[in-house]
Amino acid sequence: MNYARLSLIAAAIATLTACGQKTEAPKAADQGSAAPAAAEETVVKIGTVAPLTGPIAHLGKDIESGVKLAVDEINAEGTTIDGKKVKFEVESEDDQADPKIATQVAQRLVDKKVVGIIGHLNSGTSIPASKIYADAGIPQVSPASTNPGYTTQGFKTTYRDIANDVQQGKALGAFAVDKLAAKTVAVIDDRTAYGQGIADEFVKAAEAKGAKVVKREFTTNTATDFMAILTSIKGAKPDLVFYGGMDAQGGPLAKQMNKLGMKSKLLGADGLQSPEFLKLAGDTAEGVYASSVGMPKDKMPGFASFNEKFAAKYGEVQIYSPYAYDATKLLVAAMKRANSTDPAKYIAELPKTDYKGVTGTIAFDDKGDIKNGAVTVFQVKGGKWETLETVGGDAPAK
């Protein structure tokens, strides 16, 4: 028996089956000719979390769709990192806007070995989940959570590509007093980290400008009946009512203010500034004011192209999908610069981010907040959100 020949054959088989790849033996007709080696492909998972069920599922789906669109484009372009062709996959989870569920799905994504997180939507879910990602060393970029506490925990893994509530609350407080001439205001919030957070920041800014808070009321993020609260507020005759919460409650709130014959102006933040609010509030949306944590969609540098692609696959943009799209792409850009998809290696590139995205230029400060975040104030006119003013951010596109 020729043992040397058997050793050579064994070595060849070992080579062909290396890395766990299945390789068929060459057919008789192919023997004697060298076949080109197939490119090795690595699957890399990016997680995204938002409420995909419940009253604000339309906003959660908006985020999920932004991430999926970005990943589809990245895969279509072809990406090679550390000499390997990379295929990105989206691992999507539903946190139901519930902090307890958020921590459960966060751990599930860690266990699935995702290399980055886009989410969560709500500050109340992002904040508790962020510790789980930080402990695992997995970067998290939120395209929607605005509470300042999200990025002040000392974690090196937390980022956001939108303005926070300090920036937004300051702009809204100044707008209420300087532009709407509000001397007295009533404030309602939904007691979530987002709703209470933005209401607190609005109060600070409005009072600093000389306004007086005549009523401070609270509700929940599942309530739909505000008649008792509004009746109490109506008696105080405030010039303006500020609501800290989401569109699912803002719509019924506007209707009930109208039903009570209240003359107070209604002002909200980014949770209100959606197409869904217009549907829920109907005719009573007319004249309502709300802000958004970014430039107007039609002034974003890349929105026209993004919107065309997004609409073809997912329909109407709500609020956060452009930010989710940019967050996904800047995360992958950091991997490319590091030449690694390993979070422990590419995380060092995130503070160096200078990304020209659909929403504008994205760079982070030492806490992970976007630098020079824009805040835009809108009013409903003729059944549409019309831009009134933008504070901060890039110079709007012409």
What does this structure look like?
It is a single chain. This protein has 398 residues and is α/β, with parallel strands linked by helices. The protein is built from 12 helices and 15 strands. Strand 4, helix 4 and strand 5 form a beta-alpha-beta unit. The longest helix is centred in the N-terminal third of the chain and has 21 residues. The chain is elongated and about 70 Å long. The N terminus is likely disordered.
How many strands appear in the DSSP assignment?
15
Placed side by side, the strands forming the largest sheet appear as 8-7-9-10-11-14-15
Total helix count? 12
Low-confidence stretches: 1-38
In short:
The chain is of the alpha/beta class.
Which short descriptors sum up this protein?
single chain; six-stranded mixed sheet; seven-stranded mixed sheet; 398 residues; 12 helices; alpha/beta
Mind sketching the topology for me?
Blueprint lengths: L2 H14 L24 E10 L6 H21 L1 E3 L2 E11 L4 H13 L4 E4 L3 H14 L3 E3 L15 E3 L4 H15 L4 E6 L3 H16 L3 E7 L8 H10 L3 E5 L2 H13 L5 E4 L6 H7 L7 E4 L10 H12 L6 H18 L4 H4 L8 E3 L2 E3 L12 E7 L2 E8 L7
Parallel strand pairs: 1-3, 1-4, 4-5, 5-6, 7-8, 7-9, 9-10, 10-11
Antiparallel strand pairs: 2-3, 11-14, 12-13, 14-15
